[in-house]
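Thread: "does anyone have the structure for this chain?"

Original post by V.I.:
We have the sequence but no experimental structure in hand. Need at least a predicted one for the grant figures.
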Amino acid sequence: MKTAIRAVSFPRFLSLLILMFIIPVARPCLQCDGGISLVHEDFLLSAASSSVEDQIELTKILEHAYVSYITTSEQQSGGLIDQTALYRASTEYLSEFDRFRGSKPSGPLTFETIQILEKGRKILEKHLQTFVLEGLCPNKCGRLYQKVMNCLSCQYILHNCPSTSQDCGEFLVEAAEGGQAVFDCFLPWHRLVVGRPEYHYTWAPGTHILANLTEDDFGVLVVTEDSSIVLNQLTVDEEGTYRCLLTDAKGTVLSRTYFLLNVTPSPGPTPRSLLTLSPLSTADDTSSLPQLPTDLLLVIVAVVTALSLTASLSMAFGLISLKQQRRRRAEDGRTNGDDYAI
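Reply from O.Q.:
Generated one for you, tokens below.
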């Protein structure tokens, strides 16, 4: 009985040795996910009841699958993958592998294992293709140091994603005096910048030709973590070239964006006519006296003349009356004197 137990236990012990020493050291992209690594190890342990030959065969199948995964990643993305693509591929593969383990094998275990591992390779290939088209170095301008995983070492590295130019465009901004202008230099790939990026806005006042501007022409306007700024209550003096520099945590300039601001002057208020008062006239200054109309002057002269004539006539008649009264009194006096003489 003891001999029989030893005979049964030996294959199990041998299978453990196989798991420890035969599984390859190279870790493909899918195997970089800790969940998949545990699932594969658990699968081999569950197959310990199989013959030693089957266990060795299963281990070789896994080894070949890992090599095919590495080859696929190198062909599709140069052996690189980001966290998002790896998560999507791992999630889909684990779902398929759980379905495989939960189903009743319709054929030899080795054959079923080959099929599920090949399906994993196709899943990885699909997500790598999407990653290359949409996720790997998405910057069309500027410089990006993208955080990706090396499928051979399963270590994250910073992959340099250069472009043809660091300049990410020139934009004409029209605004009215007293209004506002909004500048925003955000690009979708800015989310992939490692660390805390900053946006440095600078300004070169006045109308300039961009090609003729130098670094000395720009003055610091604001440094912010937001990609946009707003200028309110604009004046014509705020016209000029505004520049947005994206920098990483080390201060490296990753992109440049220019905004050419043109401020339209607002129409001025309607001019008011001011009432001008004439200066006070002096005694010597007769030129500033009001000039009367000729007709009115003639009327006044006629009236004054008439009044003068009337006054003269009245005085003349008065004098004549007075003389007559005096004459009568004289005559009366003489008459009375004669009577006394008689």
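V.I.: this helps a lot. The first strand starts at residue 80 and ends at 81.
O.Q.: and The radius of gyration is 56 Å.
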